[in-house]
Amino acid sequence: FLDFGNPDLRRAVLQRELELNRRLSPDVYLGLAQVSGLPGEPAEPLLVMRRMPAERRLATLVQDGADVGDALRALARMVAAFHAGAERGPRIAAEGGREALRARWRANTTELHPFDQTVLPPGTADALDRLVTRFLDGRGPLFAQRIADERIVDGHGDLIAADVFCLDDGPRVLDCLEFDDRLRFVDGLDDVAFLAMDLERLGRTDLGERFLDDYVEFSGDPAPASLRHHYTAYRAGVRAKVACLRHAQGEPSARAEAVRYATIALHHLRTGSPRLALVGGLPGTGKTTLAGALADRFGAVVLSSDRIRKELAGLAPSTPAGAGFRKGIYTPEHTEELYSELLHRAEQLLGRGESVVLDASWTAAPHRAAAAEIAWR
């Protein structure tokens, strides 16, 4: 895919690799050198690096069952600090928007389609297309907010466990993506999701989740869980494509890798789908308890009709508001206002990628139909 066909082209890309990787590991990337060839041949450029101890490679440590919790937390802090000081701007932000992400997904799944039924299970690429489209179509406000919050940075772009070394004085991160700047202009959460996905591939989903938790803590990132899942899926989709291409180039063992990556991508797209749940019933039937349990299980936001009804009436949540049937704050007019506000807030949250549980009576069919319409939209 790339042209490194003469020493000048190779020297230019090595210079770029040196500059970019020194952002994270300046003591590993030492400089450029050259070696002379035969008489009359041009000198060959080389990138001079400090050799890292192979036994301290993160992928090796994870596969050996070593305790890497502290090292991953240090890495999360390091990457969060790197992102905080990384270059930003309109040119970079444009690559992290919803339509840019959609285009990258489409390019990947287009290349996956020919491998359906030969390398991947039938329908894999179609399933990816369907789930990705459903998420992106409904999440305009979320991606607009990510850009407004300057979460799109000139990041690493290729953060995998094989390129991280856990040394006594802290982690070293190698081999960022240097050949196409646009692929390095990503949401910070997208950047770290690559490593979380790679840890999952190595059988340590728990480490990947903890790494993302630590990154969110250090970066102060308010991203919903659905976005973490989506970026993890995207990174797995990219690797599935690469494995399929390697299989086509004559590497039979890449088939199992492609299937594994595609399985990870589909799992996260399904798990990360924002949900809207209605919990209804008459007073005293336990709907509030059930709503809370659902929210805890799925990481959802609970909107309670009791609290919002009082809020709309200018009352504190703890203020008693008992009244007769359809009296006080329970008149039909108040109830219509309540459901309108309840559904408005739900729509706003869903658009930002949050799952929502609505705790109300839901005794009127038109209110349930309106909720279904909002969920679909």
Describe this structure in words.
This protein is mainly α and 377 residues long. It has 3 domains: 51 residues, no CATH class; 219 residues, Aminoglycoside 3'-phosphotransferase, Chain: A, domain 2 (Alpha-Beta Complex), CATH 3.90.1200.10; 101 residues, 3-Layer(aba) Sandwich (Rossmann fold), CATH 3.40.50. It has a 3-stranded parallel β-sheet with strand order 7-9-8, sandwiched between helices. The chain has a two-stranded antiparallel sheet with strand order 1-2. Strands 3-6 form a two-stranded antiparallel ribbon. Strand 1 and strand 2 form a beta hairpin. Helix 6 packs parallel to helix 12 and helix 9 runs antiparallel to helix 10. It starts with 6 loop residues before the first helix and ends with a helix. The model has no long low-confidence stretch (mean pLDDT 94).
Ordered list of secondary-structure elements with their pairings:
Elements lengths: L6 H15 L7 E7 L8 E6 L8 H6 L5 H16 L5 H4 L4 H15 L11 H14 L2 H9 L3 E3 L9 E4 L2 E4 L7 H4 E3 H14 L3 H15 L5 H24 L5 H18 L4 E4 L7 H12 L2 E4 H8 L19 H20 L4 E4 L5 H12 L1
